[in-house]
Known about the structure:
The chain is an alpha/beta fold. It has helices spanning 8-17, 32-47, 76-84, 102-113, 119-128, 137-143, 160-169; strands at residues 23-27, 52-56, 132-136, 156-158, 172-175. It is globular, with a radius of gyration of 17 Å.
Amino acid sequence: MSTTQLEPAAALAELRENKPDRVTIVVLSGDMDRVMAAFIIATGAAAMGMPVTMFFTFWGLNAIRRPGAVSAAKDWLRRLFGLLNRGGADRLPLSRFHFWGLGTVMMKQVMRQHRMPGIPELMATAQELGVRFIACTTTMGLMGITKDTLIEGVDQLAGVTTYLAEAKQGSVNLFI
């Protein structure tokens, strides 16, 4: 069995030559490492001149929620859910080795030591590069999340049909 070695510089040159028309990323996870990967890919693609749309749904909505924003849901179940499920890009847990927050603190420390930007910085860069943020209205309704609990700069509140229209134009569609 043989494996093909891919030279990074050659792969980048080929990608620049044949860059996709559009990139869409569904951000389903609210885990710090997964959301970070989504923003790294989004900013990389946008920096190369590709239009990028990020569709935030279910736990992924936590990345674009304002820190400390309280659910405005009328029923007690969704209000309680909002209290337990606090948002904020800087509050996301690691998918593994979270250990009641210790693993996340350690990861952030390592990232600072290596001068790697955190999710809030990656998010700001994405917005500066023109990455579109769409918040899923269906999930917002389920989780009692309202527009005023989301960060500034969310471009659109929309459902799956909007995402599918975007994805149909894209040649790179990722689900994170």
